Amino acid sequence: MNDKLAIYPGTFDPITYGHLDILERAAKIFDKVIMAVAHNLPKKPLFTVEERMEMIRHCVREKGLTNVEVDSFDTLLIEYARQKGANVIIRGLRAISDFEYEFQMALMNRKLYPKIETLFMMPNEQFTYVSSRIVKEIASYGGSVHCLVPPYIAERLYEKLKKS
Questions:
Q1: Catalytic one among 84, 132, 136, 156?
Q2: Which of 100, 98, 97, 35 shows the shortest CA–CA distance to 65?
Q3: Is CB count within 10 Å lower at the N or C end of the chain?
């Protein structure tokens, strides 16, 4: 078990400045952070897992986050964390409405794997209202998302929406 290894899981469809804010701060706390992209088919992602991973890797390189690895998983998160030897799961909380669900998941994860801890992190206040869902909705109506996602992500999003 690596005491300084954290998993930051999510759908990241697409990654936003809020996600990146939490990732950058987590990368300062832990020796290594694995940004784990969930397959999460019930959410009907716009981007494939491979596309999401590539976009995240691009952002990680741009930010110079050398201790961040990008991976994907299609198992229970807790099983993935156990396989990787992590004992911390990072979860972002934007609003109180996120807390109830995240609290239940943290308690269930701990029940399934008592060695795991969940670290709740709030994004910078300027990103608390940003979600991937909102970003996709704004972009789908032709609105600008440049203040919500990095330029590369905005480009990819507009390209993807043109094709679909």
A1: 132
A2: 35
A3: C
CB neighbour list of residue 152: distance below 8 Å, 6 or more residues apart = 55, 58, 59, 62
Q: Of 19, 84, 91, 156, which residue is the catalytic one?
A: 19
Active-site annotation holds for 140: no
Q: How far apart are CA 103 and CA 156, in angstroms?
A: 33
What are 68's two structure tokens?
A: 């961040």
> 162 catalytic, yes or no?
no
Write out pLDDT tens, residues 29-80: 999 999 999 997 777 899 999 999 999 999 999 999 999 999 999 999 999 9
**Catalytic status, residue 91:** no
**Entry pTM:** 0.93
Catalytic residue among 4, 43, 61, 133: 43
72 belongs to the catalytic site:
no
* Interstrand relation of 88-92 and 117-121 (parallel, antiparallel or unpaired): parallel
- Which is catalytic among the residues 32, 94, 110, 160? 94
| pLDDT at site 94 | 82
| Structural domains for the chain | 5-163 (3.40.50.620)
